[in-house]
Amino acid sequence: MRVLGIETSCDETGLAIYDSERGLLGQRLHSQVILHRDYGGVVPELAARDHIRHFLPLLGELLADTEGRIPDAVAYTQGPGLAGALMVGAMAGRALAYAWRVPALGIHHLEGHLLMPLMDATDLQAPFLSLLVSGGHTQLLRVRALGDYELLGESIDDAVGEAFDKVAKMLGLDYPGGPAVARLAETGDDAAFDFPQPMLDRPGLDFSFSGLKTAVRKVIIDAPRSSQRDADICASFERAVVATLVRKCQRAVQETGLSTLVLAGGVAANVRLRRELAACPGLRLVYPPQALCTDNGAMIAYAGCRRLLHAAQGDALGLSLRPRWPLSALSALTGES
Ligand code: KG4
Ligand code: ZN
Predict the structure, then answer these.
(1) 131 and 276: one domain?
(2) d(CA 310, ligand 1 centre) in Å
């Protein structure tokens, strides 16, 4: 089965075609980073307009690359995300499916991230743990079967990617902040500042990153400004964030007895996080290639294919977007693990 995947939930226009026999056949991605950079964050209306501008040219290129063959189905991100941005991908996806007379299926954006690492790790079977870390979400999940997700813990305030972005903004670094902070951290001393490692003293698997962000702001105000100070702040911040995430994952392993962890979402691109999780004794860590951690069409094509192959039906005509949509509200795919 060949599935066209469409991702437009935020600031990337992503299109890809995944074939269940031959793997990923092609993909196109347009990032809106430059468009939003001056605002220090994503401007929803600009995002939606830019998706409209780029969708058809990207589709034309992708279809030309994949022999112009019409896919067997269209999968599009149905939520969560920015309503206007979601609308562009959903409308375009539904219209294409209607014209091609193939099914269209709305996909949960986080399920797309979560399943992405399985595209290559074909031996991986549920149950396993997943740490989903993106700009909008920080969640530890028990994946009982595909589609059957139990939320074990989540951030009670800022998402981890959001914390990276806010620290970058305070330091005047480029948007998106995660890669900029991680880059600067490489030249910093991670022991220069003793930032709090939130929620470690409390039981449970929830996270909190807003106190850490406030501690960083205080240092920025108090410590004399220098480029080395900024690098030290980034390194010390990254150390605190990674230590918190790693300790919570270790706790989840102990509590559930599961020893495989799928790391997914934009922050899964963070090299220190990958390295420290990979060093945990007895833990099998699975993550996507760097370029497929952040939003892309391949993850939606792959998730759509997995669902359609396991008897999911295409959606009825009509459009229902879900800008807010808990992952635990999905239903399990029968016969899948
Ligand atoms: O999954 P994603 O592309 O979009 C959402 O669904 O939110 O994640 C984007 C987030 C941004 O907050 C970005 O700063 C963060 O992922 N990010 C990183 C790195 N690369 C991207 N955070 C830390 N280190 C990185 N290398
Ligand atoms: Zn995402």
Answers:
(1) yes
(2) 30
